[in-house]
Amino acid sequence: MTGPPVHVVWLEDIGAGDTATVGGKNASLGEMTRALSDRGIRVPDGFATTADAYRAYLSHNQLEKPLSEQLDELDREGTSLAKVGQAARQMVLDGDLPPALAEQLAAAYRKLSSRYRSAAVDVAVRSSATAEDLPEASFAGQQDTFLNVVGEDRLFDAVKRCYASLFTDRAIAYREENGFGHLDVALSVGVQKMVRSDKAGAGVMFTIDTEHGFPRVVVIDAAWGLGEMVVQGRVDPDEHVVFKPLLGEADVVPIVGRTAGDKRRKLVYAERGESSTAEVDVPEAERRAFVLTDEEVLQLARWGCLVEEHYGRPMDIEWAKDGDSGDLFVVQARPETVQSRRQAPVLTTYRLVGDGKRLVTGLAVGDGIAVGPAFLLGGPEEFDRFEDGGVIVTEMTDPDWVPIMRRAAAVVTDHGGRTAHAAIVSRELGVPAVVGTGSATKELADGQAVTVSCAEGDDGFVYEGALEYEVDETPLEDVPATTTRMMVNMAEPGAAFRWWRLPADGVGLARMEFIINNAIKAHPLALIRYDALEDESARRQIDELVAGAASREEYFVDRLAQGIARIAAAHHPNAVIVRMSDFKTNEYADLVGGRQFEPKEANPMLGWRGASRYYSDGYRDGFALECRAIGRAREQIGLTNVMAMIPFCRTPEEADRVLETMADEGLVRGRHGLEIFVMCEVPSNVILVEEFAARFDGFSIGSNDLTQLVLGVDRDSAALAHLFDETNPAVTRSITDLIERAHRAGVRVGICGEAPSNHPDFAEMLVEAGIDSISVSPDRLLQVKTRVAEVEARRS
């Protein structure tokens, strides 16, 4: 005798091999419950209905034939997906649960309630299709989820609604495109104890960089309340980026990126009414605070690595924090299927050529550029006026938008983070998107020609008009090896992960002033001496900038350290040489609050810049913050591949004062492997090679400034442009002399100018002189590396 059919199974009794029985999502939950709970990962207790239970539901209500006939209507001209989907969903909703399924559901719910010592436990009810969350076919969020479901009647209703959601427009379109038969796909329903994240927070993490495929980071989004707000892109979340290789090291906090989201709204348990959840405003203080502590970020990242290790592939994981217990939980895990499957024998890069007015800014999704007319769409009711190749502009998207997103050149939204629906789907479709702009629907006009650029780092921009852009495809196979170290120049931390596939030997020049200008914006002395700041407008701007930071000084140090660390992580363990700030006085003055602290100079290019500032009373306190940021990136974050470089150091005596000042701030040359380099851009650096070599670990030639001073030519003078020539013998002989004498003194020499990119003969001269490293912009690296390899081959 056989017993009754098994319609309900417990999560601890299923695993990864049970996808055909309980779908990818529930099989993954069972796998983690069974295999990873001993390693500390918490998964809420629960059970799942089987695929056979779904088939029994269709059979009990005699739905197979009418559903098949209804879905066949899709092949008839003029029959809309929306009409077919609505009819199919209603058929399913009108059915009744088979008695055996209802009985097993009720028994399991009562058992789960007893496990949590509750008469009727609150549960999350999630759909898990048998063709969903597969490594080769994952398209997240096709079916529905119901939160804070309490009582057997509400559970039964939620199960039916999950079944009906197998026929959402997006799910139907997905099956059509992937060749799945509509009635061949079954649906399992997962039922888990709710994590009370309505009293804390929740979010999503990826164990790979979602934009560029950099595999050595975990990216964690977090918002207050239930996690649906993050998944649906209805809130701008916090973002944390964690560097995986250092997670196992004691006494370091390898968080290389931390951005506070706006988090204006959150989803909580409803206190009254039919709905089980309610969307409410987030108090101002909560909005400005991070949802997660650093310790919690690291715990989640470690869990993410364990899940990734167990599955053997990058993962997309949903997490939640219980506000009652303070515990973190993993509530879903699925394979990441975009970056992890992308093959990269060719490096494709986009570059904006034309100039235009920036209209809005948000988070860049992907790294492409697209041009098209803007279509301001309020919802699906306006889809019929969208034209192929247009730019979708809306507040946010949901699964109903997928069919039209496939036809778009780009997507722009007011709300959402990198794990919002618009970001996930755009990424999977290969459509550039700018999300979380805050005001695109107000700033852009319907029908307006726009250019959407995601090729400029973490930030995405929408420009006015149709701008020109270039697309370069560079094969990465067969890139020749070189004895000369080939490095890159970096300025924007947001672009660091974009170039991780390049065969670079590190960063020869990371420009600190760019990080200060873009990520900090305020003059360090205006932060330190805020109480003495006379400019009321500057005070207001600073108040806005530092909101949520522990202090104004901490704002500067933390932002700068994070920017440095992100660049260093992309190239770890290779050296990343960070040049201390090299603004001119007029450029420092342009920082918020800066005019009060900077003199007006007739010739800032040759004035109070570089080393001369660092030990002086007029800037030493600001330099101390810079040193603290370098120290934090190295010692606290753990990226000891960060090195320092001093620009525009005119005399050996000045070098001594700078090194003494750095040591006072904890940066001691040689301690924990710290190397300190000096720029060679003043003729005295060449003339006094041995004296400078005794104080530094090496030289980095700044060919622009060196040419300017060797030839006595203002590099910014149009009238003298014909005389500014880095290949002039006076310049090249200075460089070859420097290299020869520096090597005799036992120190290395590199160059971080663009001359090797612009002049092939210049690169040849450097190699023949025996230079140790050449650092160029990332987009020129392969070209220059190939040239260097040719020269080395001829010399061997």
Q: Can you walk through the features of this model?
A:
- By secondary structure, the chain is of the alpha/beta class.
- The strands form six sheets. It has an eight-stranded parallel beta barrel, surrounded by five helices. A seven-stranded mixed β-barrel has the order 15-19-18-17-16-20-21.
- Helix 25 packs parallel to helix 27.
- It is elongated and about 95 Å long.
- 51% of the residues are buried.
- Mean pLDDT is 91; it is low at 133-140.
Find the structural class using helix and strand composition.
alpha/beta
Radius of gyration: 30 Å
Mean pLDDT: 91
Task: State the helicity in percent bands.
Answer: 25-40%
The coarse overall form would be elongated
Low-confidence stretches: 133-140
The total beta strand count reads 30
Topology:
Layout: E1 8-10, H1 19-35, E2 46-49, H2 51-60, H3 64-72, H4 81-93, H5 99-115, E3 123-129, E4 145-149, H6 152-164, H7 169-178, E5 187-193, E6 201-206, E7 217-224, H8 228-231, E8 238-243, E9 255-259, E10 265-269, E11 277-281, H9 284-288, H10 294-311, E12 315-321, E13 328-335, E14 346-352, E15 358-365, E16 369-376, E17 391-394, H11 402-405, E18 410-413, H12 421-429, E19 433-435, H13 440-443, E20 449-453, E21 459-464, E22 469-475, E23 485-490, E24 507-511, H14 512-520, H15 524-528, H16 536-546, H17 552-571, E25 576-579, H18 585-589, H19 611-614, H20 620-636, E26 642-646, H21 652-664, E27 676-680, H22 683-687, H23 689-693, E28 698-701, H24 703-711, H25 729-744, E29 748-751, H26 755-758, H27 760-769, E30 773-776, H28 781-795
Parallel strand pairs: 16-17, 17-18, 18-19, 23-24, 23-30, 24-25, 25-26, 26-27, 27-28, 28-29, 29-30
Antiparallel strand pairs: 1-2, 2-5, 3-4, 3-5, 6-7, 6-12, 7-8, 8-9, 10-11, 12-13, 14-22, 15-19, 15-21, 16-20, 20-21
